User: What shape does this take?
Amino acid sequence: IMHLNFALFFISIFEMISLLTGDVTFQEQYNQDIGCFAFDHINYQKVEPEYALSMDKCVEKCLGNYFRYCGVVNATLCYCGSKLNTQGPSSCNLPCLNNSVEICGGLNAISIRSTGYLVPGPPDNVKEINILENAIELTWTEPKAPNGNILNYDIQAHPLETFANKIALPSHSWSYSGNTTKAELLGLHSGTKYNFSISAVNDNGIGKGEVRAVWTEIGSPPIPDVPVVLLTEKNKIKIHLKPVINEYGPITSYRIVVSYDVGRLFTHEELKNWSAAESEGTPAYITAEIKPKEFLEEFFVGDGNLYGGYFNAPLSSKRHYHVSFGIISTFHEVSKASYSNFTHLSNHFTKTISIEENNDGDTVLNEILIAAIVVSALVLVLLVVAYVYLRIKLGGIVRPQNLQEMVFQGPFIDMMEIKFIMKNFWGICFSILFVNIII
Assistant: This one.
């Protein structure tokens, strides 16, 4: 009696909720006696023997499994089903083992009662067979307890978690015909965990949904901006990196890639460390991999340190370098990457920098000295030419002894000054050469 009162109370509450929501209709009462029928096991599913001890226990078990009907055969077996037996009435005369007042079927006869649950049970064997960035493909089979003809399946998707922190993600709903057992759910956001609920609908309403929580596959990170070169130094380049906001998955690491062949394209899988690239003759390598918490906007390419296990090798003066900034996103064993470029072609490294250096470190000083020597030599040649010219032009002129003053109509040249210049010509030349070298 206590079990019966509790069940009636439960059904009353359930009926009230159903009336408010419109999801469930109870045309048959809980634990209502339907009749005695010839047993046909095709329409019923057997449950554990202990539930055959009384009709009440059998009703509770079948209601918990969302079946519309229950029945006991031979007072020893409890069965659940969605539709009535079609074999016609029979004779039920065996008392229940735990309640002799109740009748629990007969020889090959089943005493049937209603559970009051008229809508379908949840669809069975729901599986995700294909998970993409913006879609998920589901399959299922008809509910074990259809409780009538299935008219259609309703599917709901509600976002639970996402990497899209700045995007308000909507919920989605789909409806498929009753003979459909497969659906491709489109319009989802990548890198998002959705709560999927699939419910069957019959003439009496929508049944309980089967729920799955599934992550969509992460998407490729947005292409970052090309690094800005701040300055070049011996064997290294200082660059500025702009951080990226990824709405399609996590940022697992930042990656800096160096290439010296701008005409070749490289895939994410081809990129290796500096040592492997050098040994294989690949003109591109990963020079650094940095975790987000260690990210700095300014970075020296070629500083000789290790970053994430990658050697940031010093640069060579014999090559023109191209630098790319990459974003790596890894989640649920899926890894995707994007790299900066000018041409918007993925993995095309286009930032070209020339490094000027010398193995002994004295290239600039040597070039200055060579230029000074060349200039001094030219000055010396000009002075020699001037000396020869003056010797030829003025070699025969002698200053008169008694002449106190000479007046020329043209430019005046003091012969003593000329003789002094010619006498000390080579000393003057070497002095000028020395001054040029010092300068």
Observations:
- The chain has six helices and 23 strands.
- Residues 363-394 form the longest helix (32 residues).
- The radius of gyration is 47 Å.
- Residues 1-26, 342-362, 396-415 have pLDDT under 50 and may be disordered.
